[in-house]
Amino acid sequence: MTPAAPAGVPVPAPPTHAPPTPGAVALVAAGGSVGVLVRAALAQAVPAAPGGWPWTTWAVNVVGSLLLGVLLGVLQRGPDAGRRRAVRLGVGTGVLGGFTTYSTFAVEVQTLVAGGHVVGVAYALVSVVAGVAAAAAGLVLTGRRTRSAGAPAGAPGTGGRGDA
Question: pTM of the entire structure?
Fold first, then answer.
């Protein structure tokens, strides 16, 4: 039983989001299957050397972060409804969520550190910094592209006659 709020203290409203629909769940599942299969194929094609930098996981996570930033930058141009929502769920949460992998990253860091490999700490730090930087770069790139695409011809930043 939830205790009543003291007099004069506002009671927060319950969440207003609707539960996921079967179609939304199917989009995420289908997209996630694609992302996981691509990542698994890459990991098998280019396995990490024992005690070495796990390049495949690192590249997958950094590229995935960049693509998530780009996707977010494109999708934030309108409401999260209709096609935008379907793309966000299918491509963002699904494909890119399945493609990127925090669990493999965490296991690789733990294995490297437990094995006495100093590269494990560097891998953890560089991966997080590179992932955040890649996502930010994706947002910046789509932001610039959006402004340039919506600007009149010759406006600064569009590559037209108005640029110095």
Answer: 0.77
